[in-house]
Amino acid sequence: MDRFPNAADVDFHSPLDLSKAAAAVLDDEGRIAGWGSSAQRLLGHAPEDVLGQSAARLLAKAPGQRLSALCKAHKPRSTVLDLCCRDGRSLRAAVTFTPLSHRGAAATVVVAADLEELRGWEAQLAMLQGLATESSVGLTIFDTDMRVVWGNVSTDLELAGIAQYIGRPAEDLFPEGEFISRHHPPDEDQIMEHVLTTGEPIMGMHYRGRAPADPVREHVWSCSYHRLVDARGEPLGLFEESLDITDRYRAQERLSLLVRAGKRIGASLDVRRTAAELADVAVPQLADEVLVDLPPAVIEGRQPPTGSAPGHSLLRMHGRTPEEFRTTPVSYPPSSPQALSLATGRPVADASPPGAPGDPGPAAPHSCLFVPLLTRDAVLGLATFRRSSNPDPFGSEEHTLAVELAERAAVGIDNARRYTSQHAAALVLQRSLLPQHLPEQSAVEVAYRYLPADSRVGVGGDWFDVIPLSGARVGLTVGDVVGHGVHAAATMGRLRATVRTLALLDLDPAELLTRLDDLVSQGSDANDGLSDEALGVTCLYAIYDPVSGRCVWASAGHPPPIVADASGSVALSALAPGPPLGLGGLPYENVELSLSSGSVVALFTDGVVEDRRTDIDSGIDRLAEVLAWQRSPLEELCDRALSALPPGPQADDATLLLVRTRRLGAEHVADLELSPDPAMVAHARTITERQLATWGLSELSFTAALVVSELVTNGIRYATGPVMLRLIRDRCLLCEVSDNAHTAPHLRRARRDDEGGRGLFLVAQMSQRWGTRYAASGKTIWAELPIPQGPLAGDVGGGPP
User: Fold this and answer.
1) Integer Cα distance of 56 and 35 in angstroms
2) Calpha distance 413→373 (Å, rounded)
3) For residues 281-313, b (16+ Cβ closer than 10 Å) or e, as one string?
């Protein structure tokens, strides 16, 4: 298929060319003596209508003496006239009058063309002239033997004179150049042969080389090749378009380099790997070699030295893996550019640097750039960017790029140093015992922080968890084991797992803490591992229901939560904490609160609000001031809360769990009260199918109707009062049936001749989860049905403002 189907419409012949222009002959009286077919095509007048008539009749305006003067001129004259067409239109035309004399008879040949077409043709010629003389696009014509025929001014400048290359093959233009685009054969002869043979143009090839006019600097061009054919379609050769894109190409390379640096540098939290990552990213695009020199203290995870002479006692790092890692001592004299860079905190370039002591690289690099590794106004070390095979010196943009890479590397090295120094033991605790990924919930938005105590104290026993429950509810817990060390961490892990297990039984908070207290007491008496670490452990457990906005919690000796409602009002919960776990005594009590959508609830351990220098009331006031900004993102609130802690090492772990409540809108919940009449089962199925159709979940109608039918049948059969059906569209479809009976449903396998007993078995087979929860008024049997391509939780209404 022709790539340019309208190419035949492009015609570079002049509209005044005799093969195209309208032609006529006037006698010495100005009458039309000859009328060509081209004149008829232009104006529409037939020869019999105009022959013998005065040419003035074809003028749209009164001619005066102008036409007579043009006809009697002794040399060709050109002008612009408005001509009358047969259809009544007026055509502005460019007209040329050429006098003739034959055997004493005078006549004038008139050639006319549409003025607009003529101006377009002139613009085309101007464009071609501009391409040849003014354009920055290089144009080079090759014959069928791929030898140079012609080049425009841009090509002439790049080659330092095109004349010396006329008749020479294309490979002589840039003998050391190469194509860096790999989507076509990299050999220029193959590319030209392909274009000549197939006529298919090849465009956008990137070519790298050194121009004869600028042999020092490497350039990159974007090259395209097109075949040239004559009027018969026979190949005449081909032409090449080349545009110097060196600056744009290098800018793209710098951008891609920064993108790679952002992904790779500092991702390992290891000093040695971060240094190797800097070298991997910068070589060979920016430098041929990158060297990193650090003080021993930074490599060991300690604070960098201050006040020492710059350039002394550094270690050059080698190797990318722990097995390969080694160091070489290096030292720079005070007058060296390396010492100057470390002392001033600025990059220093050296065009002809000598080899440094302990330097394993080449002895005579072309140029070096020394960049200090700076972070938080501290000098962590020095990065050296060296070029040995590339003779180009580092430019200003490359200085900026090297500084950017060094800054990223410095942040990564400093983070790795801090990680090694302060958080190793605490992060082991986080990874092994604390939640790795909190489940996404429609009910709440969650953010948390865990700040381990100072490494001299050891691992602590704080924990927290977010537990999905039935009915789109969520369980929230925070706890603290008294003491530190491995035993406290092990006890914390066991208690967290126990709380999660009890929560999945759908126990209310007070009942859950009562059972947990019994288990802790029994474990302590049996000396099975909980032992003294569990004595005095505190725990807070809460359940939030996004349908009703009701939140219920209970505490075992744990600080009460702080609530910031949607209006920004902050209050300490009126929760009376019960005794810590394992001590027995007073019972645990539930506290209920109705939360508006967008409220922020802070659950925390005493390390967040209490330390040796301030009392707990001051810490709670400090946290309450942070929560007053409750409309801020939770992550930002977490950072603010921990940044408000007093400076210095912490005596205890600090755990903060922030929860922003959401409400499921009425459009996501459907409630139906059913009388204890078996006929209501069919009505419940019908209502379920209608509701699912409204939610766009008709594909679940059969399964949901069957589950609802069995659950409602169960409720009507064993309850003495009305049965409540609730449907909730959340991350899954929730079906709940509540009644006033407290008898527990049992799943059993019905025999072949049994008339019933298969309901719960069908519910269990059709749902992904099902269960029963109890309340003072009765029980609720629930089932969850997966939504294959249903709405995400983010689609639910009533989210935070």
Assistant:
1) 15
2) 9
3) bbeeebbbbbbbbbbeebbeeeebeeeeebbee
Does 328 score more than 70 pLDDT? yes
Place of tokens 């060979």: 284
pLDDT for residue 771 is more than 60: yes
Query: 0.70 exceeded by the pTM?
Result: no
- As to burial, measured by CB atoms within 10 angstroms (0-12 exposed, 13-18 middle, 19+ buried), residue 611 is buried
Residue by residue, DSSP assigns 214-273 as EEEEEEEEEEEEEEEE-TTS-EEEEEEEEEE-HHHHHHHHHHHHHHHHHHHTTSS--HHH
- What pairing do the DSSP bridges indicate for beta strands 778-786 and 732-739? antiparallel
Amino acid 402: pLDDT: 87
Computed from CA positions of residues 286, 292, 298, 300, in that sequence, does the dihedral angle turn out positive or negative? Answer: positive
Closest CA to 780 of 721, 746, 735: 735
Among the residue ranges 430-439, 583-592, 636-645, the one predicted with the least confidence is 430-439
Name the strands in the sheet holding 77-84, side by side, starting at the edge strand that comes first in the sequence.
32-35, 22-27, 105-114, 90-102, 77-84
Pick from 235, 181, 236: nearest CA to 206:
181
Quick one: DSSP state of residue 561?
P
Locate the DSSP E strands across 452-561: 462-468, 474-480, 538-545, 550-556
> Is residue 672 within 8 Å of residue 725, measured between CB atoms?
yes
Continuous H helices in 357-508: 396-418, 424-433, 486-503
Spacing of C-alpha 408 from chain mean position: 19
CA gap 180, 176 in Å, rounded: 13
Nearest to 730 by CA among 688, 773, 695, 701: 695
The per-residue pLDDT for 484 is 66
Q: What pLDDT is recorded for position 690?
A: 92
User: What is the C-alpha separation between 179 and 188, in angstroms, rounded?
Assistant: 8
> Would you call 29 exposed, middle or buried from its count of C-beta atoms within 10 A (0-12, 13-18, 19+)?
exposed
User: Torsions phi, psi of 239, nearest 5?
Assistant: -125, 150
What CA dihedral angle connects 628, 634, 640 and 641, to 10 degrees? 80
CA–CA separation, 292 and 309 (whole Å) = 18
Residue entry with tokens 């549409």: 114
For residue 533, CA distances in Å to 462, 481, 487, 580, 581 come to 12, 7, 7, 12, 11
- Residues 156, 498: Cα–Cα separation, whole Å: 82
Q: Note whether 447 and 638 are within 8 A (CB).
A: yes
pLDDT, tens digit (0-9, with 9 covering 90-100), for 335-372:
888 888 888 888 998 866 555 444 544 445 678 999 99
Answer whether 125's CB lies under 8 Å from 118's CB: no
Chain center to CA of 517:
48
237: phi then psi, degrees, rounded to nearest 5: 145, -145
Which range among 75-84, 302-311, 461-470, 648-657 shows the weakest confidence by mean pLDDT?
302-311
Residue 589: CB atoms within 10 A of its CB come to 14
Strand positions, DSSP E, 276-426: 289-294, 314-318, 326-330, 348-350, 367-375, 378-387
For 103-122, the pLDDT digits (tens) are 555 688 888 888 888 888 87
State how far Cα 479 lies from the chain centre.
37
Q: How many CA atoms lie within 13 A of 294 on its CB side?
A: 28
What is the sign, positive or negative, of the torsion defined by CA atoms of 40, 46, 51, 57? negative
CA dihedral 297, 268, 387, 384 (to 10 degrees): -20
Distance CA 189, CA 244 (A): 21
